[in-house]
Amino acid sequence: MSQWSQVQQLEIKFLEQVDQFYDDNFPMEIRHLLAQWIESQDWEAAANNEAMAMILLQNLIIQVDEQLDRVSQEKNLLLIHNLKRVRKLLQGKYHGNPMHIAVIISNCLREERRILAAASMPVQGPLEKSLQNSVVSERQRNVEHKVSAIKNSAQMTDQDVKYLEDLQEEFDFRYKTIQSLEQNDKNSALIKQEMLALQAMLNTLDYKRKEVLSKIGRVIHEIDMLMSNMLTEELLDWKRRQQIACIGGPLHGGLDQLQNCFTLLAESLFQVRRQLEKLDELLTRLTYDGDPIPVQRPQLLEKVNFLLYNLFRNSFVVERQPCMPTHPQRPMVLKTLIQFTVKLRLLIKLPELNYQIRVKATIDKNVSTVSNRRFVLCGTHVKAMNMDESANGSLSVEFRHLQPKEMKTSAGSKGNEGPHMVTEELHSISFETQVCLYGLTINLETSSLPVVMISNVSQLPNAWASIIWYNLSTNDPQNLSFFNNPPAATLGQLLEVLSWQFSSYVGRGLNSEQLNMLAEKLTGQVSYNDYQLSWAKFCKEHLPGKSFTFWVWLEAILDLIKKHILPLWIDGYIMGFVSKEKERILLKDKTPGTFLLRFSESNLGGITFTWVDQLENGDVTFHSVEPYNKGRLSALPFADILRDYKVIMADNVPENPLKYLYPDIPKDKAFGKHYSCQPNEVSKPSDGGGKGYVPSVFIPVSKILNDSTEPHSPSDLLPMSPSVYAVLREHLSPTAIETAVS
């Protein structure tokens, strides 16, 4: 079943989540019509490879054209209209930046997998639940409503200022007319009446000036309160959601909404600033005793400028954290002399700023806060922000060719690179720029989340563990000394993040039973609600009786799944995380030949299968094969191993003992679609391959003695062609075959 088919079967509350991340950037119609084709492409790799992204974009347009031809024949007018619109969108919006559509589709597929994983969980995890708090959603709506109201108030004040200007011009004209009269004419009753009218008009002017200043003051106060409270909280929440998304959590949305709020507030402040400038202009033409403008205007202007400074400073954000294109699901881990990408955005989107802001990237700007290791950035580290590179027209800049290079210490050698010292050192990439607009000059600075610098890819697993622990444990964006005394983490939240590693990296998260097994492995107990786990227990201390840590063991399993058994994992046929004791409880009452698949607890990156059998006296026995690691699985696909596996019991011919996948799924029904070819048939030498050779295959064979239930050695995997095996069966007794195998 395709991923999209699974999505369509979700409950309505999960479908609503899916609906949130499909928009005009990637319409849901295309996801639906091209589901299988889209899922068969490597969008993740294309997101960091421009040539590959361009090819996929062109192929996507071809696929849309084919759908357009089909619906044209069916005369489906609505679908024809939508597909033409989508085709125009793809050609216009992404032709200059094909990697952007690859990023969008990759993120959508990843978020679908996360939602599917969440739907399979009995309860929502504590972290995800906090991110989807209804109070947060209500605050988002309130912010948008208040920003809209402020914008309307500023526009209404514009009309008041215009009325005031018109009133003052009329007053000025009538006053100058009287002043131009002869002295005798000024004493007439008509002129005295006009003077009284002018005095009334001046009183009205004074009242309107005070009213306009009061309205301007209220608008400024509303903006100040909104920025100080709800907008600041919204921005902090977005940054927290970004942290969680970086370690595999739900995709963080809401930046476009924040951009809209920041931009409208900036426009309102600049509008108020122009209103104050207009009042100053009116002041130069007319003033009087008790005039409120010279008293109130300087204070209001100072407050407006202060708010603009703060708004701009908060609007400069890292939209996409530093990430190596070679490891898109391991952001914030950077390898020396390997390029990484990072994207920044100014949330105040004003046309006047397009190509006017140049951003400079540096590393470890505040060197006193970091380790003895020093780095510099090589490559293009100064670029201009623009609205042309982003599909949504945001004012942003993406650095794509930065490389960190480690500097030698004064002693002439590089810094200490112990196994944990390097991966626990945190560094910061900083960005600075200057905005000059309407007479204001504002210096802006921001920084990435802490990154870990490695010099060898073997350090990547522990470096990623550091990134997980940091972003799980704190929302402080710049605590570079965090690992001097790393805090403990709540086990419930950690297990949720571990499930995200599986859903984001290998397409299927962990269920409650699998998480319970991990909890027991970490703590020795299944109940873990409020258990606090130390950093050392997670990543530094060896598991009891083992030569590796918990994290190294788990990372090896992720790597095994990704490279060798991914389709079987996604289908949900690998139980994986189950102890030997639990597997026997599960299998003991099952039909002989029932088996399950689990990851080895004693071997790194190993998977084994255990099946239940019944002796002649009715006793139940269990058999487990030695775990298959990536070396053996590189030679033979795991599904083929399950299909072709044979055991030779004493006095019996070889047979496949694997009949039903736990609990009762026929083996071929579960794994049939993953077999590399049909089950091997016996071939005669004359039917063989080229040049008279007999076709050969690897057949995994084990020998089991009557009293043996122990795992078997790697030598159990023997190369044997079907024809040779047939000849053996034809000419040799089972005992002789057993002797030969021995």
UniProtKB/TrEMBL annotation:
Pfam families in the cross-refs: SH2, STAT_alpha, STAT_bind, STAT_int, STAT_linker
The GO terms this record gives for MF are: DNA binding; DNA-binding transcription factor activity, RNA polymerase II-specific
**InterPro entries xref list:** p53-like_TF_DNA-bd_sf (IPR008967), SH2 (IPR000980), SH2_dom_sf (IPR036860), STAT (IPR001217), STAT4_CC (IPR046991), STAT4_DBD (IPR029839), STAT4_SH2 (IPR035856), STAT_linker (IPR048988)
Entry superkingdom: Eukaryota
Q: Does the keyword Methyltransferase apply?
A: no
| SMART domains, sorted | STAT_int
| Membrane-spanning intervals of the chain | none
Q: Where in the cell is it found?
A: Cytoplasm; Nucleus
Q: Which UniProt keywords apply?
A: Acetylation, Activator, ADP-ribosylation, Coiled coil, Cytoplasm, DNA-binding, Isopeptide bond, Methylation, Nucleus, Phosphoprotein, SH2 domain, Transcription, Transcription regulation, Ubl conjugation
GO terms under biological process = cell surface receptor signaling pathway via JAK-STAT; defense response to virus; negative regulation of developmental process; regulation of apoptotic process; type I interferon-mediated signaling pathway; type II interferon-mediated signaling pathway
- Similarity section: Belongs to the transcription factor STAT family.
Task: List the protein's name.
Answer: Signal transducer and activator of transcription
The organism is Oriolus oriolus
- Gene designation: Stat4
